[in-house]
Design brief:
With 210 residues, this protein is an alpha/beta fold. The chain is 48% helix and 16% strand. The protein contains ten helices and eight strands. The longest helix is centred in the last third of the chain and has 16 residues. It is globular, with a radius of gyration of 16 Å.
């Protein structure tokens, strides 16, 4: 993982997810998150327009580290990298994406939920992985079990993480950061209530520091 990304996550270990079809809304959402203290953003590739939204964020904002999430194939990984993604996140572990990112020096967080998947990631040379879907995969107890075995691994739980359980996840030494979409509620974004997005981001930063 790059030193800049590592230092950002150390200061504010929360990665909000943006999944807007409208590039202008994506930019406004990213700026609102940044205003609340969250400067590492994951744009999820769950629509045809998502990559354009990521490109707009990169082009029209300052001070953010922008990555691509929900990357499913090697070709998609190469495409989002060419568009400027500074890190890549996948819902599962795909060897060829992992090898590509390792060779290119791109931080990669593949989704894992079992000991076998974490061990496979470790064998490939990864030391940071996503834990997904966190709540369904066993939550904090499962992460405690995995961390006791894979002592060099760090995890980014995503899926079911919220303000109510964020502190519990971050209390684990081997949790690098938490990802989540609770910071960008669709109703707030669609109604233009970006002050609410900033407030949610500020609250998450306060929980993390607490």
């Amino acid at each position: 993982m790059t030193s800049d990304l590592s230092s950002r996550l150390s200061a504010a270990p929360v990665v909000p997810l943006i999944g807007e079809n409208d590039a202008a809304l994506a930019v406004k959402t990213a700026n609102a998150l940044n205003a609340g203290g969250l400067s590492v953003i994951e744009v999820v590739m769950r629509s045809d327009a998502a990559q354009a939204g990521m490109e707009a964020i990169i082009a029209e904002t300052e001070g953010l580290i922008v990555g691509a999430g929900t990357v499913l194939t090697l070709d998609q990984a190469k495409s989002v990298r060419a568009s400027g993604a500074e890190f890549i996140v996948s819902p599962g572990l795909v060897d060829e994406i992992a090898v590509y990112c390792l060779d290119e020096g791109i931080p990669f967080f593949p989704g894992t939920m079992t000991a076998g998947e974490v061990q496979r990631a470790y064998a490939l040379g990864l030391r940071d992985v996503k834990f997904f879907p966190a709540s369904l995969a066993g939550g904090v107890p499962m992460l405690k079990a995995l961390g006791s075995v894979f002592r060099e691994m760090r995890f980014m739980p995503t899926g079911g993480v919220s303000a109510s359980n964020l502190a519990e996840f971050l209390a684990l030494d081997h949790v690098l950061a938490c990802g989540g979409s609770w910071l960008t509620p669709r109703d707030a974004v669609e109604s233009g209530d970006f002050a609410r997005v900033t407030q949610l981001a500020s609250e998450a930063v306060a929980i993390a520091k607490g």
